[in-house]
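Why should sequence recovery work at all? Because a backbone constrains its sequence more than one might expect. Tight turns favour small or flexible residues, buried strands favour hydrophobic ones, and helices have their own preferences. The token representation captures these environments compactly. In the example below, the structure is given first.
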């Protein structure tokens, strides 16, 4: 198990800040990278397409300036998330911009594409593909993905059905490349636990919603702070794919979180559901089960410092008991 050169020796913590639909934007990504973890954003957050060019320029130049000013603590690399499902009509153009700016890492979702991996490899970039089971993991590697993101039960937004213990164990039986783990990770001890299971990196999303740099409304951030695992509802209604969402947002939309109908994956519906005018992500808020560890809305730097402190404390406890 080894990290690619793009990441080796460049992280304060073995963490990727997950790309958050609507929420992740340059301010959040730059803050994450300066704090020493991989910052990422979905390409589709930049609308119109021309804004993606502007965002990649801003992130690239800002991080380069930071590195010149702070050679003793350079920023971590950033990642762009590409939805490679056939419904994404912007993919080809978005990838042209990722190649233009030589995005260090490209995270692919909802399908594996060999041509995308070849495009990223053409300039020396690295690809990670997120998967929810071993079958999809094999497909991703066969099509040239450098690394995998195992999205386990408890992850925010679109989540997998399997325990992280089972999923990582089965992947590591045949894959020794870079592996990130997603699913209810919101404190430093969980980051260390991900490594102990066999992952190289922890993939953290929901905790970063409750940061000052995140582009989320204050009510959403506060709901993360106030919430706990029991406030997470799993449903396929809103997009046709199973995902985890905050119960209060479902109730506010006029829906019964305990009696949600199933969605149809064939429709890939990213709009409203259940007869409500509420829209997923904007009004129906995604969240993972680990939010009980989030106690306040803080700057990204403060959240990463907490994770680093807890990570070190967890290591010390293990060493002391050995």
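From this structural description, the recovered sequence reads:
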């Amino acid at each position: 198990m080894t990290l690619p050169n793009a990441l080796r020796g460049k992280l304060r913590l073995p963490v990727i800040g997950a790309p958050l639909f609507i929420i992740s934007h340059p301010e959040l990504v730059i803050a994450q990278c300066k704090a020493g973890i991989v910052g990422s954003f979905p390409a589709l957050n930049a609308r119109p397409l021309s804004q993606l060019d502007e965002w990649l320029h801003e992130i690239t130049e800002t991080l380069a300036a930071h590195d010149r000013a702070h050679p003793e603590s350079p920023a971590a690399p950033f990642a762009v998330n590409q939805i490679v499902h056939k419904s994404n009509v912007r993919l080809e153009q978005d990838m042209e911009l990722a190649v233009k700016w030589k995005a260090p890492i490209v995270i692919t979702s909802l399908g594996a594409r060999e041509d995308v991996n070849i495009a990223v490899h053409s300039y020396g970039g690295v690809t990670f593909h997120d998967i929810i089971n071993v079958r999809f993991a094999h497909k991703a590697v066969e099509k040239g993905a450098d690394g995998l993101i195992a999205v386990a039960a408890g992850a925010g937004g679109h989540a997998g059905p399997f325990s992280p213990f089972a999923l990582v164990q089965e992947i590591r039986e045949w894959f020794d490349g870079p592996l990130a783990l997603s699913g209810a990770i919101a404190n430093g001890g969980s980051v260390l636990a991900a490594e102990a299971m066999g992952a190289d990196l922890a993939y953290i999303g929901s905790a970063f919603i409750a940061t000052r740099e995140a582009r989320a409304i204050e009510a959403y951030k506060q709901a993360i702070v106030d919430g706990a695992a029991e406030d997470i509802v799993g449903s396929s209604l809103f997009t046709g794919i199973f995902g985890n969402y905050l119960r209060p947002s479902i109730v506010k939309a006029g829906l019964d979180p305990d009696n949600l109908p199933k969605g149809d994956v064939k429709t890939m519906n990213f709009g409203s559901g259940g007869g409500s005018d509420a829209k997923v992500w904007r009004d129906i808020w995604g969240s993972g089960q680990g939010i009980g560890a989030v106690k306040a809305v803080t700057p990204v730097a403060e959240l990463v410092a907490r994770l680093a402190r807890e990570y070190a404390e967890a290591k010390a406890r293990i060493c002391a008991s050995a």
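A few observations help interpret the result. Residues 80 and 157 are 18 Å apart (CA to CA).
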